């Protein structure tokens, strides 16, 4: 399908249980799509709902109304209504997510953290590790670190492990939440190149980049999330 991700009329409020269940609307009437080979960047001021939107699409936050349609192995799945088992299968096969911070697993070597998504998809450990090594090399992570658990790595080193882990699979949709926030210029350029490769491979990318240089280089289109903010209507 040429449009692997379609978001249709999505709305979300947060319920503040410690404040008498008061409801804080964060976005409403969110409709957009991301085409194959396109990188759409979410824009708008801090606190407007960009990260929340990515978390809704990944299934970490439930939505109140609307549909999140993904092409999952040729079948359209509505993630807003899918059961947890389906969401996990979509994440394994179709929908990747690179968060800002690496969630480290104690005692697992960096190279295995990166290889793990491929192993989870049934690839042999040896070939998954080879691909992991190639990506870590591309991202300039010193080879002396590959066999060490990333818990003690610097912020930028952990972020590169995280990026390698997110980019290693052939997911057809990739969500990127500030993947370059802790990187130096050299490695930001590497990540821009990796995004270009994904686009050429027909992947649909949706990201948040506060770094203007990365945003300009990666974005085919900037989607201003402010247009989906119900707060303007409340203030009026
Ligand atoms: N789990 C949550 N519970 C309650 N409120 C939340 C939760 N997550 C986010 N919010 C609120 O929703 C709003 C949008 O937050 P979000 O992190 O999506 O914004 P953002 O546009 O990504 O901001 P930034 O650019 O600063 O990262 C904020 O007011 C935030 O406080």
UniProtKB/TrEMBL annotation:
Keywords: ATP-binding, Lyase, Nucleotide-binding. Residues 5-236 form the ABC transporter domain. Gene3D superfamilies: P-loop containing nucleotide triphosphate hydrolases (3.40.50.300). PROSITE patterns: ABC_TRANSPORTER_1, ABC_TRANSPORTER_2. SUPFAM superfamilies: P-loop containing nucleoside triphosphate hydrolases (SSF52540). Belongs to the ABC transporter superfamily. This is Phosphonate C-P lyase system protein PhnL. The gene is phnL.
């Amino acid at each position: 399908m040429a449009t692997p991700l379609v978001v249709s009329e999505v709305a979300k409020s947060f319920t503040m249980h410690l404040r008498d269940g008061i409801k804080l609307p964060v976005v409403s009437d969110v409709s957009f799509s991301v085409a194959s080979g396109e990188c759409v960047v979410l824009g708008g001021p801090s606190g407007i709902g960009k990260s929340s939107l990515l978390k809704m699409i990944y299934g970490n936050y439930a939505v109140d109304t609307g549909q999140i349609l993904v092409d999952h192995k040729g079948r359209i799945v509505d993630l807003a209504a899918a059961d947890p088992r389906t969401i996990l299968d979509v994440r394994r096969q179709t929908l990747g997510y690179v968060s800002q911070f690496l969630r480290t697993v104690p005692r697992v070597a960096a190279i295995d953290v990166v290889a793990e998504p491929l192993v989870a998809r049934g690839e042999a450990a040896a070939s998954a590790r080879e691909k992991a090594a190639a990506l870590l090399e591309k991202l300039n992570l010193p080879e002396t670190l590959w066999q060490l658990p990333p818990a003690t790595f610097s912020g930028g080193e952990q972020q590169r492990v995280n990026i390698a882990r997110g980019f290693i699979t052939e997911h057809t949709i990739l969500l990127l939440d500030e993947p370059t926030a802790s990187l130096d210029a050299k490695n930001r350029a590497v990540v821009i190149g990796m995004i270009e490769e994904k686009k050429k491979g027909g992947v649909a990318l949706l990201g948040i980049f506060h770094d203007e240089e990365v945003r300009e280089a990666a974005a085919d289109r900037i989607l201003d999330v402010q247009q989906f903010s119900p707060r303007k209507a409340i203030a009026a």
